[in-house]
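Input chain follows. Return C-alpha cells only.
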Amino acid sequence: MTDGDLSASARAYAAIRDSILDGTHAPGEMVGEANLAAAIGVSRTPVRAALARLQDEGWIVIYPKRGAIVQGLSERAIAELGDARLILESTSVGRAPAASRERLADAMAASIERQRAAFAAGDVREFIELTLRFHRGFVEAGGNTVLLDLYDRMSDRQRFVLFQAGDRLLARCEEIISEHQALTDLLRSGDAASFAAALRDHIAETGVKPLSSFGFDGITTFPPASTA
C-alpha cells in the first residue's frame, strides 16, 4: 500500500468513525463501500481498509458483497462503561495531591464557562468535546499514566453515548452545568468520598447507569500519590 493509500485510508477511517460516533450512521444502518467512497472523496480500497479496522474495533459488522451494518453499544456495555469511568475518575481524584486538585479545579472553572457558552449556542458537538476533556481531567489529576491510557481507550465509547443522548443533554443543560460545578467544588475540597457519590449520580443522569454497587470508601483507600 502506498503512502497515498495510507493517507486516504486514515482519512476514510476518521470520516466513517466520526459519522458512526455522532449518529450520522445509526446503529442497524447498512453502509456500502461505493457510497462511502463517493461521500468521502476516495477510492473503495481505503474505505475497505477503514471498514476492516472499524470491524476490529466493534463498530460495524461486514457482510461481504453487501456492505456493513453499524453496531451500537448494548445496555450492558453502556453500564460497564459507566462503571469503568466511575472507578477511574474517582480513584484518580482520591489519589491526587492537593496542589494538583487546586490547579485542575481552576482549569475546570474555565471549562464550565465554555460549556455554558456551547449550551447557549445549542452546539452539542462542542459541549461533548468540552465535557470529555472535563472528565478526563479527573484522571489526569491522579498522575497515573496507566490509568489515563485506559481512560483514553474508552473515549470513543463515551463520545458515542453522549451523542446518543444529544437531545437529553440540551434538555438538562442547567442541571449538567450545576453538576459539573458541584464536582469541581468537591475536587477542590478533597472530599473524595462525596466526589465519588456525586460522580455516580452524574453519570447515571446522562443515561449511563453503572452496574456496580461497590462502596465509595473502597475507591479512596489507596495511599496518596507521591509528590516527590
